[in-house]
Design goal:
By secondary structure, the chain is an all-beta fold. It has a domain of 69 residues: 10 Kd Chaperonin, Protein Cpn10, Chain O. The chain is 0% helix and 35% strand. The chain contains no helices and eight strands. The strands form two sheets. A six-stranded antiparallel β-sheet has the order 6-7-1-2-5-8, with no helix packed on it. Strands 3-4 form a two-stranded antiparallel ribbon. The radius of gyration is 18 Å and the shape is elongated.
Amino acid sequence: MATATKTKKSAKSDIKLQPLGDRIVIEREEAEETTAGGIVLPDTAKDKPARGVVVAVGDGRLLDNGKRAELQLKVGDRVLFSSYAGEEFKVGDRELLLMREDDVLAVIE
């Protein structure tokens, strides 16, 4: 009796993401390890940062006339967003966030 074997992909994924419409993919920045006073924070006390880097952008929102509105954000922009914005997902060992461009509050320069 023959058995099928699955091949494992490497931990480093080469998957390319293309968000649809006016959606963007963001990689969160790392959480702070210590407070301003030097107190080391345990993992349970850390807040998820509301800052990140844009990894991928969509084609833009579809307008009523059939054209696409160009997005204001581009890959590599550092952005600030609300804590509860977007949907979290994992690709390989990377934790990413998918959200609409409207959920971004500001670009950090």
